[in-house]
Specification:
Number of helices: 13
Helix content: 25-40%
Bound molecules: beta-D-mannopyranose
Largest sheet: 8 strands, parallel, barrel
Radius of gyration: 21 Å
Strand order of the largest sheet: 1-5-6-7-8-9-10-11
Number of strands: 12
Order of helices and strands: HHHHEEEHEEHEHHEHEHEHEHEHE
Length: 381
């Protein structure tokens, strides 16, 4: 894990560890127990990493769901809601997902709500609520295209990454995007002012070419430089110490182990390695693809001393009544996976088919209850 030796860290030690104690008592405490390290100079990110590692050592896997508290198959949170209790997962099995995923797409251009219409205020508050409930929060980012003005999927130019790197025509502009993202990630705090740790997963699925930062849209050097720039800004310049940095290639392109690490930004930046892998009606093909990605990711994680996760998966519409216990669980259960996150349950009328977790009436609801009550699966009561 990276070492953060900054003025801000000293500030954080005071803020996080010694807050309830007076300054004088704190000074005595530091002297008597040999300095801040022993008294716990852990950053929020380190604390989360420690927790994730302990869970893996116990052989446990957290279940996660994207946008869980924001909307479900047939509902959306009211604009003025301040309680985050409705959830398709909870309605189905009586427990909340341990991992709550959200996406920052839209924050870069000052939208009040993200690309899937979730107000950022409610995203922030629900992240805090989930953390206080004992859960873990993760953010991905589908930023718009800073060169063309299109969305994250606009791959009409292969000059986008080049244009935002230092010296590029959109560099200054893009730095305002990073600032907006950093402002938000920094603002996820409890009422006491404690920063909520976040698994931060930008620049995902880069082994494919459907996002402007994808394989055919930039060189290996440019992709790595994009990560370095993101990290330098958020950690070195802004001092954000609540981020667990996560790397997640798309599984479909992992034809050989080398592909996985080809554009890896480096051990100094990354804390957790994973992959995104979706199921289609050919269940055996999904099983094979998951096994391949899990094997490659595990070997990479072991070699680099990193934690691993299934950062995105799911079967759109869950068109198999036993998918949870007969397909997903068997393929992942023997790997040291920190969490498995299924994608969102869209609520828009034209996207009723786009759901990855069940709801009470769904044909896989009973199997989901069996899956989530397995000893190995961590949920939030
Ligand atoms: C995709 C789809 C889109 C969504 C995007 C970001 O996979 O679910 O509808 O906008 O993720 O959440």
């Amino acid at each position: 894990m990276k070492i953060y030796i900054t003025v801000r860290q000293n500030f954080n030690i005071m803020k996080y560890i010694l807050k309830p104690i007076t300054m004088i008592a704190a000074a005595i405490a530091i002297i008597s127990c040999g300095g801040p390290k022993e008294s716990g100079s852990q950053t929020p990110a380190d604390a989360l990493l420690g927790r994730l590692e302990a869970q893996i050592n116990e052989g446990k896997i957290m279940f996660g769901h994207q946008d869980d508290y924001m909307y479900g198959h047939s509902w959306r949170l009211a604009d003025d809601a301040t309680e985050y209790v409705q959830s398709d997962v909870h309605a189905t099995c009586g427990q909340y997902p341990a991992v709550y995923g959200m996406d920052l797409g839209g924050i870069e251009v000052d939208w009040p709500a993200n690309l899937d219409k979730n107000p950022f205020e409610q995203m922030r508050a629900s992240a805090v609520a989930h953390h206080e409930r004992g859960g873990v929060v993760t953010f991905s980012w589908h930023p718009r295209n800073p060169l063309t003005g299109g969305d994250a999927w606009d791959v009409s130019s292969d000059q986008v990454v080049a244009s935002i790197l230092p010296g590029g025509e959109k560099h200054e502009y893009f730095m305002t995007w990073l600032a907006n993202a950093a402002d938000f990630l920094e603002s996820i705090k409890t009422a006491d002012g404690d920063m909520v740790p976040v698994i931060w997963r930008p620049w995902h699925e880069h082994t494919g070419s459907w996002f402007w930062w994808g394989q055919k849209l930039c060189t290996t050097e440019q992709y790595k430089a994009l990560w370095q720039m993101t990290y330098d800004y958020m950690v070195n310049e802004r001092g954000l110490d609540n981020l667990v940095w996560s790397y997640s290639p798309g599984a479909g392109e992992l034809s050989a182990p080398e592909v996985y690490g080809e554009r890896y930004p480096g051990d100094e930046i990354i804390d957790m390695v994973g992959f995104d892998c979706y199921c289609n009606p050919d269940l055996d093909r999904y099983r094979a693809s998951m096994k391949n990605a899990l094997d490659i990711t595990k070997a990479f994680a072991d070699e680099h001393g990193k934690l691993m996760a299934i950062t995105e998966t799911g079967y759109e519409g869950v068109k198999d009544a036993k998918w949870w216990t007969q397909v997903l669980y068997p393929v992942m259960k023997d790997y040291p996976v920190s969490y498995v996150l299924v994608w969102r349950n869209a609520c828009d009328a034209h996207m009723q088919h786009h759901f990855y977790a069940p709801f009470p009436e769904h044909e896989s609801a009973e199997d989901f209850r069996t899956f989530t009550s397995l000893e190995q699966i961590i949920m939030i009561k």
